[in-house]
Amino acid sequence: MADRPHSGFENVLDLPPPDAPLDASSLPAGGGVYALTDEHDHVLLTLGTQSLRRSVMHRLQAPPTDGPTRRVDLRAIAHKLHWIPTYSVFETYLVYLTTARRLSPDRYRKDLAFGPVWFARVDPSERFPRWEASTIAFRGAVEIGPFAERAQCAAFIELLEDVFDLCRKHDILVQAPNGQACVYHEMGRCPAPCDGSVSLEAYHEQIRRSVAFATGGHEVHLRMLEDRMRASAAAQAFEQAGRIKGLWERAARLLKRDGRLSVTPDRFRYLVVQRGGGAARVKPFFVNAGAIEAGEPVLIRKLDETVPNWLLRLEQPGSDAAGDSVIRSEGIWLMSHFLGRGDKAPGVFLPVSSCGVAAEVTQRIRDRLGRRDRSSENMRDTGAPAEDVES
Asked: Which pLDDT score is estimated for 226?
């Protein structure tokens, strides 16, 4: 990375020349995101860590001389230390993501300590719509998710195709009405809009029904499947009844396993509360459709008067970043990384839909962060060696 970091880092420290001792006490304590720069202030290394002092001292050690090594002697070329203090693992991840995206837009994702999540998306306004899996949301279509794994997203899309008899061969569909119907039509599992057996308008209605199911109307469609299953059984079409029963069971299992199926990215809204410097302060983060904004740290004893303002803020539109589909999607990636830990995630993660009244939220924060939480402070889940997030 060759960009200059001045505009993004809050603090800077001139490092002593290589032949002078480096005093550890001169380095910042606590966690943070930092960059080491050369004599021209070009970035040599960017890291996120829960211990700036320890990490910087480690990085500026001379490489071993007792054998071959690929390690660069940063002490010989590093002239300045730039850093942003952070007070929690979550904040370190967030600041590192923002910083790495700015300094290294072509490669930063390779160095993140978390991966993407997946969204099922379809644009019903397209002439030949189809459900697809994507890691980027907020692109003007119907989108469902996030799904933690691509396989989960693919299974959901396959279920929609099976329940609503959607086209599986998009390359043939785009030839409608002059396409050649595939084997799914022969099996009675596709009405074949590709060869004109049904109109594209009729196919669009199937897509609209699948959208209604995916965005929360699954109970109606599960009952519809039950009715079709009973009708087939009554008509002694037992093979068809068995297939419909299998679809119903798959849908029921998927809905039971993943209750987020009715959640769309624009409804991904959370209040996140982390430590804000010492045991007496906490810091809020407002997640609005993937855009994450940090609030000011407050004393825990002042939560009663502060939390109501936090909840009001969550009802307001987000910042300009909310308009960027990549930033918002990566915000959901980051959040999903922590949400996937459940109760083991450090701090408090509250979906807006379950925040309730301010007094209840305040109590939940005090229960989790009103005492020293050793499991949160000692987490070493950050990317590269030990507790660093590296780029």
From this structure: 76
